[in-house]
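Researcher: Sequence of Homolog to small CPxCG-related zinc finger protein follows. Predict its structure.
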Amino acid sequence: MSTTIDTPLEDEPCAYCGSRIFDHDPICVRDCAEDCGSPEYFCNYACLSTYIEANGLTTGNACEWTPT
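Model: Prediction complete. Tokens:
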């Protein structure tokens, strides 16, 4: 699966809180399960984590684990 990397704009907003990502510690996330769509940018891990939780993105996506 091939994808290109582009640097986001200097004033790119965080997908969760709207802050400028480069004022913080930015993270780029792209869903490559299908066609790699457009990336989402987050200003830090806290916003990414909250976005994941708020949108229920882990529901049904966990691997099965058995301790034995």
